[in-house]
Structure formats: C-alpha cells, structure tokens
Design brief:
This protein has helices spanning about 15-20, 30-35, 40-45, 100-110, 125-135, 160-175, 205-215, 220, 225-235, 240-250; strands at about 5-10, 50-55, 70-75, 80, 95, 115-120, 145-150, 180-190, 260-270, 275-280. It is of the alpha/beta class and about 280 residues long.
Length: about 280
C-alpha cells in the first residue's frame, strides 16, 4: 500500500520565484533565505518521493472571484505554469498522478469531505515556488505532483480544525491506495503577512515561531485556533497557515503513531514584505 513518509511546510512568496528566475538568488538580500533551504534541497534529493501531494492556494489564476471552491484536487495528467500577469514562470510543467488523485478524491468524498475535481488548470506561484525552493531549477520536477488548492483568498476560508481533519482523511485515502508509493504531503503559504491596508507589511516573529512550535508538538490544539487570531496576529494573509494543518493532519502520530522527526526548521525575515517559515517532518 502507499504510505506517507514526510510532510514539508514552506512559504510560497512570489518574489522568491522572481529572484530565482532573474538570477538574483546570490544577491546579499536573497542569499540568507536560499541558504536556509540548502539542507532541505539535499534532504529531498536523498529522499525523493514517488508523488508529492501539494497543498497550496490559487491566487485568482485557475479560479476567479466568480467561482472559488473551498477544496479542489487536480486530477489531470499535467499542469502548466500559469501566467500571473508577466508571463508564465520559466519552470517545468507539473506532471500529475491522475490515478492516485482520483483515488484520493473518491476516498475523501466518501469520508464526507466535499472536493471539487479539477481536470484542467494552470498552477501559479503558490505551487511552483515551493517546488523551486526544494528542487532548484531542474529540467523536470523530480516526481509527479498532485495539486490541492484551498480557498484562503475569499472569506470564509475553511477552519483550521476542518483542515486538520481533512489531512487525516487524506492520510487514510493514501494508505488505502493499492500500490507501494512513497508519498510526501506539503503544506504551503504564510507566514505572517498583510498586503494591504493600514497594517500592510505586518510581520509577527513571535506568532510565527509559536505557530511552528505548536505545529510540531501539539497540532491538535493548534487546529482549534480561530480565524480571528490569525488575522489579528499574523495579518489578513496569515490565514494561509491553515493549509499547513492539512499536511500536519496527514502525519502518522495524529493516528496514534510515534512523534515525527524534525529534519529541518528555518525562519527568515524579510522576503519581499513577508516572513518565510519552513519545516520538514519525517514519519518514524
């Protein structure tokens, strides 16, 4: 049967993709950030999965304000980089895994979670920047990727608790797939940031690091944090962090297994006008 071996958590700041694409990653401003991901790049190279299930949010690219699904799973064979207004990123096409995606959709919907099944969509920086951070600039991504889009753009987004419970359902789905696949679940977005209004540029280091502490050690309690706490403490876009709870809910300890092993943890300010957080957890 398939198994989840690890979860990866990372911000997906669009300016990070631009820095890579324009050859600026070695500049003094960006160098500390990319150095923080070097251990993760080495880890992924040594622990390349068969499939990555990547939780992210679309930024009005595949979906518009006319129609925004709360949860959407990409079941296509491939997903092209989106044009977000300045041309598509010069990164490889994302190859999907339709068979596993369809199985997850079947299992999770039968487990009473409503998913939107997407058979054609482009993927924006929310998905491609995390891949670039851990994979560099390859000719092809190292494995198939199943995109899983979550609405954290138009209120109301799903609660942290619902995301955490959904992660559990995704773990059950993956573990019931009749093929010995090594699967990683990635949660992306955040950390604290606000892009507009009087608090534009807000960064809360204390909140961000407390979130990472609790994500690792006590995700069940963290999942009960209300939306207003994210908005008040981490900015209007800080609510993206509920997506990390999907990846955390998919880990074995939540279902009675051993606590995960922390492979790497990193936090950096600033990257554009946001905080960047990152962690890798391995199932034991």
């Amino acid at each position: 049967m398939a198994r989840i071996t690890a979860s990866v958590y990372t911000s997906h700041v669009p300016a990070i993709g631009a820095a890579l694409d324009l050859g600026k990653s070695g500049e003094p401003y960006w160098q500390p950030l990319f150095k923080g991901y070097e251990p993760s790049k080495a880890w992924l190279k040594a622990n390349t999965p068969d499939v990555i299930f990547l939780v992210y949010n679309d930024h009005a690219t595949a979906f518009s304000l006319e129609m925004i699904p709360t949860f959407a799973i990409g079941c296509a064979a491939e997903f092209k980089p989106a044009d977000e207004g300045w041309g598509p990123r010069p990164v490889p096409t994302v190859i999907g895994h339709p068979e596993l995606a369809a199985h997850i959709a079947q299992s999770v919907i039968q487990d009473d979670f409503d998913l939107t099944i997407v058979n054609k969509m482009d993927v924006d920086h929310g998905l491609t920047v995390p891949l670039s951070l851990l994979c560099g600039q390859p000719q092809a991504w190292p494995c198939p990727v199943i995109p899983f889009a979550v609405n954290v753009v138009q209120f109301p987004p799903p609660s942290g608790r619902r995301c955490f419970e959904l992660g559990k359902a995704i773990r059950r789905a993956i573990e019931s797939y009749d093929e010995p696949l090594n699967v990683q679940v990635w949660g992306t977005g955040g950390m604290s940031h606000q892009l507009q209004g009087q608090r534009a540029g807000l960064i809360n280091r204390e909140f961000d690091n407390a979130f990472l502490d609790q994500l690792i050690a006590d995700p069940d309690s963290l999942s009960r944090k209300p939306h207003i706490d994210y908005v008040r403490e981490a900015g209007s876009e800080g609510v993206e962090l509920v997506m990390w709870l999907i990846a955390r809910g998919a880990m074995s300890d939540v279902a009675g297994g051993q606590p995960p092993r922390l492979v790497h943890r990193f936090y950096h300010v600033p990257a554009s006008n946001t905080a960047v957080g990152h962690a890798i957890l391995e199932n034991v």
